[in-house]
Amino acid sequence: LFSFESLAETLEIEMLNKLGKETMVYSIKIARINTNDKIIWRSVDKGHNVEFLGMPEGVKKFKSKINKDTEYTFTKPGIYLYQCTPHKAMGMIGIVVVGGDTHNIKKIKKAKLYGKSKKVFKKLLKELN
């Protein structure tokens, strides 16, 4: 007997006001994980959250509370695009690729982005390929 939970990995991403020369960022912009892995977003600096903008078919919308650590276990392969709701215009977005699967890239490219997030998103898309 074995548990699938024991096979899963956990990745931590910090929600930060500043990282190097960048402001309003997640410590990891593109996370590549396996199916059933978990991400914990740590509220290191105040005023941040996680809100899914695009995800594989059948995945429910996800939006965490502001100023709270949050976690999500990724059970469906594909690309997940997320943002910090208060700082979306400042480019605070991130991408999770689950299981190396990019089948939903066309849907992700149609996500509604604001301000600096559009520029950041283009840069992240280049890194995906």
Q: What are the defining features of this structure?
A:
129 residues, 17% helix, 8 strands, globular, 3 helices, alpha/beta, disordered N terminus
Summarize the structure.
This protein is of the alpha/beta class. The protein has helices spanning 4-7, 105-109, 116-128; strands at 10-19, 22-26, 30-33, 38-42, 51-54, 70-73, 78-83, 93-98. Strand 1 (10-19) and strand 2 form a beta hairpin.
- Radius of gyration based on Cα positions: 14 Å
Strand content: 25-35%
Shape: globular
Number of alpha- plus pi-helical segments: 3
Uncertain parts:
1-5
Name the average pLDDT.
Answer: 94
Structural class: alpha/beta
Strand order of the largest sheet: 2-1-4-6
Query: In percent, how helical is the residue content?
Result: 10-25%
Task: Explain what the structure shows.
There is one protein chain. The protein is an alpha/beta fold and 129 residues long. Helix content is 17%, strand content 34%. The chain has 3 helices and 8 strands. Strands 2-1-4-6 form a 4-stranded mixed beta sheet, with no helix packed on it. Strand 1 (10-19) and strand 2 form a beta hairpin. The chain is globular, with a radius of gyration of 14 Å.
